[in-house]
Amino acid sequence: MNEKEITKKNILFLLLDKWSDWEASYLSVGIQMLAGENYSIKTVAIDKKEVLSIGGFKTLCDYNLSTVPENYEALILIGGLSWRDHKYDEVKKIINQCLEKK
Considering the domain 3-101 in this protein, what is its CATH number? Predict the structure, then answer.
């Protein structure tokens, strides 16, 4: 890891099972094209398991809810087909933490 990577600010993409891969791709490309020198895209899942996108991409995320770093610039909630599942109530904790940082 070079010195420039260490100073980059993290933007977290929260991915649930059946996440909308096209949403993440449009956003991440935009961020990288406009501000890639200053920001690093990182992914977050509920646990340490892979998440599967609607388009079939299996993703092993950088963090899970118990390992999310305290310092990050933004939390992006990627859409998908699982947001109405009650098993995702634990996601509220990271959302509330992000809102408190504001």
Answer: 3.40.50.880
